[in-house]
Design a protein that fits this description.
alpha+beta; Helix Hairpins; Glucose Permease (Domain IIA); 10-stranded antiparallel sheet; two-stranded antiparallel sheet; 4 helices; disordered N terminus
């Protein structure tokens, strides 16, 4: 009886061994396939990451150019305002010169009238002398009948000579004044005309530049929107790849019968910092402090000093640990049952885990920083349910 049992046991053992070999081979084959898929996903993610980084670099470049253009616009507007002030001053100056010209014209007319009147007197005397014959001053004096008459004639001649001299000097002065005022007025008017023409040309040039800058800003804004769409699409693609990687990692663990790292079944999450911190920006619609645009803030910002340890909120597996557009350096942890937590703006060289790492609740995974779209050191903390951001506060209470 014992002899029959022994061959039977040996036969069953051999059969069992033969059956175990295909199963082990199947498990190994499944794991290899998953590893191949993970490798492909890693390459896809690297490509998407590169595309996102390139888009972000272009966005930064466009934003810088847009900011510089806006500054140039401000400078141009100030120049336009200055030109307008100069034009106003020139108009006032033209009015003053016009008044001066009118006054000078009146003075010129009066001076010309005086000159004409004096010339008329002198011509009248010359005509009288011509008609009556030329009589010299000496003839007048020698024709005196007595000494008293001689003295009277001397005084009369002195008065005539003085009057002639005064007339000639006044005429000369008036003529010089007329010529000088005329020259000064013409110079002033010509100068004002030139200045006005220059200022007018400057205003036209500045207005043309202002229009060109407005067109450029509109073009840059359009370009920026296209790049933001590309970057946002890349981020979605990266997130989807991370999800696929997590699912493949879970299949790999199942195939190798490894213990699942996911233990979350509901309840309160661990606080992501060692100490409570002030919420500097809540889970609300807000104006992005960097871009100045309205957005839905997908998490909460917790104020903390640079290098402060960031703690995993729950047991899980790291599905992302790299740069992501506005988040800067970023870590995403999968906790199972559709629950993810995201940690953003991590400092440079501040990511202490890698994709595929299993982390425990309260484990230090990164350090607080200010990378990406950030105005200061803080932790951006998100909770995502089935990839949809939800208010983290109820999970932390």
């Amino acid at each position: 009886m014992k002899k029959k049992i022994l061959p039977l046991v040996l036969t069953l053992g051999i059969a069992a061994s033969v059956a175990a070999v295909p199963y082990a081979g199947y498990a190994a084959s499944t794991t290899d396939k998953i590893d191949q898929q993970l490798t492909q996903l890693k390459k896809q993610k690297a490509d998407a990451q590169q595309k996102s980084n390139e888009a972000q670099n272009q966005i930064t470049k466009v934003q810088n150019e847009k900011d510089q253009t806006a500054k140039d616009m401000t400078t141009l507007l100030n120049q336009v305002n200055e030109a307008s002030k100069r034009l106003t001053m020139l108009n006032e100056q033209i009015d003053q010169v016009s008044d001066t010209l009118e006054s000078n014209a009146k003075q010129l007319d009066e001076a010309v009238a005086r000159v004409q009147s004096r010339d008329s007197m002198l011509k009248s005397r010359v005509r009288l002398m011509y008609m009556n014959g030329f009589v010299s001053y000496m003839d007048v004096l020698l024709s005196a009948t007595n000494f008293s008459d001689f003295l009277n004639r001397v005084e009369a001649l002195k008065a005539i000579v003085s009057q002639d001299k005064s007339i000639l000097e006044s005429n000369k002065k008036d003529k010089e004044t007329v010529a000088l005022k005329k020259e000064e007025t013409e110079k002033q008017l010509e100068q004002v005309k030139v200045l006005y023409a220059n200022a007018d040309a400057l205003r036209d040039d500045l207005q043309a530049k202002e229009k060109a800058k407005e067109v450029k800003i509109a073009s840059l804004s359009k370009q920026e929107k296209v790049l933001e769409d590309i970057s946002e699409e890349s981020d979605k693609q990266i997130t989807q790849i991370a999800k696929q990687e997590a699912e493949l990692q879970e299949k790999k663990r199942a195939a190798s019968k490894a213990k699942s790292p996911f233990t979350y079944a509901g309840g309160k999450l661990g606080y992501p910092l060692a100490a409570q911190a002030q919420i500097t920006s809540d889970f609300v619609n807000r104006i992005n402090p960097v871009t100045g645009k309205a957005e839905n803030h997908k998490g909460i910002d917790l104020g903390a000093a640079k290098g402060t340890g960031i703690l995993a909120a729950e047991n899980g597996s790291v599905i992302y640990a790299s740069w992501m557009n506005g988040y800067g350096n970023c870590v995403i942890v999968n906790h199972g049952n559709g629950l993810w937590t995201l940690y953003g703006h991590i400092m440079n060289d501040g990511i202490y885990v890698k994709i595929g790492d299993v982390v425990k609740r309260g484990q230090k995974i990164a350090g607080v920083g200010s990378t990406g779209q950030s105005t200061g050191n803080h932790l951006h903390f998100e909770v995502r349910l089935n990839e949809v951001p939800t208010d983290p506060k109820p999970f932390l209470r």
